[in-house]
């Protein structure tokens, strides 16, 4: 069985530096971590802002337990919320913590989720086909999803969320397996079905594992990740205070597109400024030390209009700060 590896935070230094551009390190600010995970970013923010408090969301009870232990040193400065970040605006109103100085979304799955076969996220290990981040809520498992959706819906999910060229063939193969009473119940069975369906020369030419795209697509669908992101962003812009920064780290183009468009829309509506035209990406040292960082893209938006020039968030020759250019 694979060892559980604790998640290493991606571009944590950059997140703290962006926050520092708008909030004094001695301030009693409120920060929100919408995706607590193992608490790596949360630790960096609590260390960087010794008088600030942090409200942290995660819909995964395993993540909350692990992170709560790691953050226990910070006592009353941290509040861990067992909810989907979709509810950020409602929670902020109910609990009276509007006016956040920084809100971070570090999207996707954590290494803990990927490395536990029983969670069903990984095509590398055999386990139940689950893939739910929130196992206490009402969402259905990946096994139930593929056993109950028609071929057109399955094909749409594999094509739109996984950019899988053989989406329709895989969807048809799933429906035929279901008709034989052999719908995949484990990650191993699902991977074997994908391998049987994709032509051998196509599999040989693929850069990564043949099941990678379809697993990503199914995970996005099971957890309604894109809908949650849209709602979470809409909530975040209302929860952020003046000069509050919304930072999003995404790991695939579907997420990044939503973030980019939402930021441009807010900017056009005069709600604030996009901090860098192009996203920040991790440096080669970080990617070498943490392979999970390789596809990361960081975008940031500041609510309101800065009175003076903030800290330039330019990094690695990729991002371009638009601060002071408005
Ligand atoms: C990439 S990890 C975050 C890692 C974290 N930044 C750290 O430093 O350890 C993403 C986390 O966000 C959680 N998550 C994803 N979507 C969520 C949502 N809509 N609501 C709440 N939590 C979510 C996942 O359960 C996972 O633990």
Task: From the structure above, extract its key features.
7-stranded mixed beta sheet, binds S-adenosylmethionine, 2 domains, 13% strand, Rossmann fold, 7 strands, 326 residues, DNA polymerase, domain 1, disordered C terminus, alpha/beta, single chain
Describe this structure in words.
The model is unreliable at 308-326 (pLDDT under 50). Strand 2 (53-57), helix 3 (61-70) and strand 3 form a beta-alpha-beta unit. Helix 12 runs parallel beside helix 13. Strands 3-2-1-4-5-7-6 form a seven-stranded mixed β-sheet, sandwiched between helices. With 326 residues, the chain is of the alpha/beta class. The protein contains 14 helices and seven strands. It is elongated and about 65 Å long. It folds into two domains: 12-112 and 225-303, Rossmann fold; 140-222, DNA polymerase, domain 1, CATH 1.10.150.170. The chain has helices at 12-20, 40-48, 61-70, 88-95, 111-115, 142-148, 151-162, 167-179, 187-197, 200-205, 212-222, 225-239, 253-268, 284-289, and strands at 30-33, 53-57, 78-81, 100-106, 240-250, 272-274, 297-303. S-adenosylmethionine binds at residues 7, 9, 35, 37-41, 57-60, 63, 84-86, 106, 108, 110, 133, 228. The site of S-adenosylmethionine has 21 residues, from helix 2.
SSE blueprint:
Blueprint: H1 12-20, E1 30-33, H2 40-48, E2 53-57, H3 61-70, E3 78-81, H4 88-95, E4 100-106, H5 111-115, H6 142-148, H7 151-162, H8 167-179, H9 187-197, H10 200-205, H11 212-222, H12 225-239, E5 240-250, H13 253-268, E6 272-274, H14 284-289, E7 297-303
Parallel strand pairs: 1-2, 1-4, 2-3, 4-5
Antiparallel strand pairs: 5-7, 6-7
Helix pairs in contact: 1-2, 4-12, 7-8, 7-11, 12-13
The structure holds S-adenosylmethionine.
